[in-house]
DNA sequence: CACATATATAAGTATATGCTTATATAATAA
DNA sequence: TTATTATATAAGCATATACTTATATATGTG
């Protein structure tokens, strides 16, 4: 893992809202609308944050009708895994 | 470890220059002037970055004459330790 | 003392970040 | 088709970040 990619992944998680999203996703696949209900920011803001996590390879999504279900990627780098482990369930 | 402190530590390491500084410090205590020689930013910039790492509890320093020797704190949180482990020596 | 060296702090600035509101897109239902 | 719901994208803006240069501080030397 080169240092540039490490930086990208770390930037993706160094934000309270994105850490909270990851914390929510620990309990399993969740659609955007449910995530919006949990954290106190707008729906577009949640979409934007999820996109950052997705671009860093930390979460992935599948579409189900109009819903989109996000989940944490199973195989993570040791660093990201350590972070996920620290988050409350 | 609460999520706010986790965020603070992650923000402190989510930058290529600070990761490079940590990478240098893996080989042991180093003074600011030697770190300046290694990474391509000015001396004040290095001091500012080291301050961020220090405020996050990741590095510490001791003064020796006019020099200041920075080093990585021994006991780290699992997350920060995982990051340090990933860095080249 | 004056001067040199190492480091820190201050001030300014360009870019990045993370929200907001408005709007676009996609799928579904009536 | 029109309307509704879920999500994404665009644009704008306020704040944060990370440099730079200039200057302050601290220590050591002649």
Automatic annotation (TrEMBL), chains A, B:
Give the domain of life. Bacteria
Q: Which residues form the HTH arsR-type domain?
A: 1-89
Q: What's a single GO MF annotation on this record?
A: DNA-binding transcription factor activity
**CDD domains in UniProt:** HTH_ARSR
Keywords, in A-Z order = DNA-binding, Transcription, Transcription regulation
What is the official name of this protein in its record? ArsR family transcriptional regulator
Which species expresses this protein natively? Ureibacillus acetophenoni
């Amino acid at each position: 893992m080169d240092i540039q990619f490490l930086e990208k992944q770390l930037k993706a998680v160094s934000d309270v809202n994105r850490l909270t999203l990851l914390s929510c996703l620990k309990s399993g696949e969740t659609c955007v609308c449910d995530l919006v209900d949990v954290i106190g920011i707008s729906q577009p803001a949640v979409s934007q944050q999820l996109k950052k996590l997705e671009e860093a390879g930390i979460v992935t999504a599948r579409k189900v009708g109009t819903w989109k279900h996000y989940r944490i990627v199973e195989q993570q780098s040791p660093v990201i895994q350590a972070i996920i482990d620290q988050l409350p369930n």
